[in-house]
Amino acid sequence: SNEHIVYVSPDGDDDTGDGTQENPWRQIQTAIVKTKDYNSKLVTINCAAGNYNNLSLTSYINHGYQLYMNGDVITTGGEFIVSNTDLTISGTSTSTLSVTSTGDRGIAVNGDMNFIVKGISTLNITARRYGITTIQLEGGCVILSCDVNITLTANNAHSGVSLFNHGRLQAGSINVHSDYGVGYGLSIQRF
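Below the sequence we write its predicted structure tokens.
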């Protein structure tokens, strides 16, 4: 099929869940791991409002993902990584996605792919040195069609958005804050 829909919820269970609406998984990452071999062009993860661990989409996946948020979603933990796999984040028009990373980068986008955030109200990112980084997007791009607020917490914060080697960005409002100062709001570097 062209699309496969699975469900996650803070009330779900990663061990006994099966990804259905009646029996969802607990973590977004579990949905990614369990659907990586699905034979479809797109996997939609229907995400109930609540708290989740940050996710890592890696190059072993052979289809795109859509994360649809039914309310406010908070992800925490290591860096939120998207690598060589298209990801679209969408949801209700009042939804907010808050990404809190314990690593240097909030959201890391790597490889020839697209990372799109649309249809939600706000994307909030908290990280140590970089809000969003892109590395070697080649033909891909980052599209942010919502308000973006980036808070950097390290005293050596680098930039709100860093585009390394072929990164492309299309965005509206991006606000960058750091109590220590920020080197750049937007950094574009070619290797």
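The first strand starts at residue 3 and ends at 8.
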